[in-house]
Input
Amino acid sequence: PSVISHWFSVSSATEFEQRLQEAYSLKDIPPSQWHTVKYHEQAEPEGILRFIPTLGYMAILLLAVEMYMRQRRMGGGPGGGSNPFQMTQMKGAVVEKNLKIGFKDVAGMGEAKQEIMEFVSFL
Output
């Protein structure tokens, strides 16, 4: 017969054995047909060593964010490097000071005069 092997981690060998025997019992498999289980202990890194991969991923993420922010400050990236805090680059609109526009030029509704009168009486 061919040998098939599977590798996986278990927290407790005794608990795994108990659950495996329960599963065999529920399926009515006789003990002569049970599989042979071999255990190999593998040392897990302790302390800070177990967090090194996570710290590496976080460092790569922070580096990518920093590079993106530098690119935005230098003028590259989407939007042409527009910075919402640089208001000095905005061009002002030209406004004429002597405009001759009256109420009759803008009022197109019959209720507009009533609304303005209510507003004036409120003030």
